[in-house]
Amino acid sequence: MNFDAGSLKYDEKGLVPAIAQDATTHEVLMLAWMNEEAVRRTLDTGRVTYWSRSRQSFWIKGETSGHVQELVDFRYDCDRDCILVTVNQTGAACHTNRRSCFYTAVRDGEDVELMKPMG
After folding, report:
1. Is-contact 114 105, C-beta < 8 A?
2. Residue of 24, 29, 35, 99 with fewest CB within 10 Å of its CB?
3. What are the tens digits of pLDDT across the range 65-109?
4. DSSP symbol at 44
5. Burial classification of residue 9, based on how many CB atoms lie within 10 Å of its CB (0-12 exposed, 13-18 middle, 19 or more buried)
6. Cβ of 106: how many Cβ atoms within 10 Å?
């Protein structure tokens, strides 16, 4: 049975949220969006491809930064409306040059920065 990218449940803009997780450490790296074509490109090439809502265009993670996401596993949830890609991450996943976009926590009612930008 071949996977049909059109079988996922996309929102009214034709998008589905995609969570990127490090395949080795299991750290949650980022959340971005994919449309049906981005799903196909990701599965066809092994390079994680997202849809930029602000630029209205495709972007392959690491294409300009060199911080590549190599696809290890592609999963979707029970409702077929969210994707989890496990990846081998090279460099920072966040545009702020941090390993993860989830670098801020709320502890005792205060914002706490968990990690600094990478070297």
Report:
1. yes
2. 24
3. 889 999 999 999 999 999 999 999 999 999 999 999 999 999 999
4. H
5. exposed
6. 8
